[in-house]
Amino acid sequence: MPGAYIRGMGLSCALGETVEQCVSALERMQVCPVTLTLDEFTEPLRIPYYRINDSKEPFDSSRYESLIPAVAHAAVIHAGLTSDEIHNLPVFIGSSCFTVGWSEQSYMNALAKHPENALPMPLCGYQDIADILQRGLGSQGETYTYNTACTASANALLGAMRMIELGLYRDALVVGVELINRTSLAGFSGLQILAQTIQPFDQLRQGIVLGEGVGAIVLSAETDSVNHVRVLGGANNCDTWSMTTANTNGHSAAAVMIQALKQARIRPRQICCIKAHGTATRTGDMAEACGLRQVFENLPPVTVLKPYLGHTLGACCVNELVLFASALLHRFIPATPGFKTTDPELNIHPLTVEMPAQTGHYLLNHFGFAGNNTVLILEKTA
């Protein structure tokens, strides 16, 4: 059987600290960014942000040790894995920033105590998140780390699915991590693409609102559930047109969608709904819209999840997949907050009210900096 089944899920984001809380907030169309003030710069920044509403201060570096293992533990418990299965569980991690926030805090602490010895960005490596996860779970399985901008956790999931298909693993844990850090906030502010609200595909869209989230999915070669969601297939490409801006002709976006559909042996007309990437930037939405129009003669319903949890960068695939798959299992497709005015250049009309989720196939888009594009195909059973 191609693909892999979603056997367990965990999520902590602006909507809540459990999958159940997040789905409930999704049904209520809850949108809850806060305003952060960064006064460490010459010009203080006031930035809307979707943060996890835990009990700690947003820049408290101990949040890595508290949030990440808790979400992973929720996923493996939901999957019903035994202690032996957890011990040998391979972990696939996708993130843009990994422990940058942790590193920033270490630097600031050193700067306050011994400025002559302070090193900018210490202790920031690709293995840190894996170490936190393995300590928290008591796992000693192989670890794989992906850092491909906003497609990082999508590629981690695609890699896990491929290894399950090859028979290398029966189960795999895929984790997307993006926690607040000053480097990302200042960097995106410098790009001048941050907005006050997220309005995907809207004529008045002005840019993204960042968010943080930790999502975890247990993929498995088999399932006992009648009502389930399977990652049926997917594809990735990289067009290198620009380091930061999508090619607005949509050719590479269309190519990866077509490749994913072919890999899953699905035709465009079989897609029930599209979960768009929908960054709400001028060029990003233009590129995705052009790509969609090249692939679909009759466009199926489109929805976007970033207005609920913000753009969680490298973690956005796993975070949004947990939300979307959970909504499908609850038999609804969420609406898209923030969309009001159709852009005639795009001619994309995201759902403004939720609709029933039917049995069938769903396409999920993920597009990142430097033209790294990943598309997943899901199958929902009764």
TrEMBL record:
<keyword id="KW-0808">Transferase</keyword>
<feature type="domain" description="Ketosynthase family 3 (KS3)">
    <location>
        <begin position="1"/>
        <end position="380"/>
    </location>
</feature>
<dbReference type="Pfam" id="PF02801">
    <property type="entry name" value="Ketoacyl-synt_C"/>
</dbReference>
<dbReference type="InterPro" id="IPR014030">
    <property type="entry name" value="Ketoacyl_synth_N"/>
</dbReference>
<protein>
    <submittedName>
        <fullName>Beta-ketoacyl synthase</fullName>
        <ecNumber>2.3.1.41</ecNumber>
    </submittedName>
</protein>
<dbReference type="InterPro" id="IPR016039">
    <property type="entry name" value="Thiolase-like"/>
</dbReference>
<dbReference type="InterPro" id="IPR000794">
    <property type="entry name" value="Beta-ketoacyl_synthase"/>
</dbReference>
<keyword id="KW-0012">Acyltransferase</keyword>
<dbReference type="GO" id="GO:0005829">
    <property type="term" value="C:cytosol"/>
</dbReference>
<dbReference type="InterPro" id="IPR014031">
    <property type="entry name" value="Ketoacyl_synth_C"/>
</dbReference>
<dbReference type="GO" id="GO:0004315">
    <property type="term" value="F:3-oxoacyl-[acyl-carrier-protein] synthase activity"/>
</dbReference>
<dbReference type="Pfam" id="PF00109">
    <property type="entry name" value="ketoacyl-synt"/>
</dbReference>
<dbReference type="InterPro" id="IPR020841">
    <property type="entry name" value="PKS_Beta-ketoAc_synthase_dom"/>
</dbReference>
<dbReference type="GO" id="GO:0006633">
    <property type="term" value="P:fatty acid biosynthetic process"/>
</dbReference>
<comment type="similarity">
    <text>Belongs to the thiolase-like superfamily. Beta-ketoacyl-ACP synthases family.</text>
</comment>
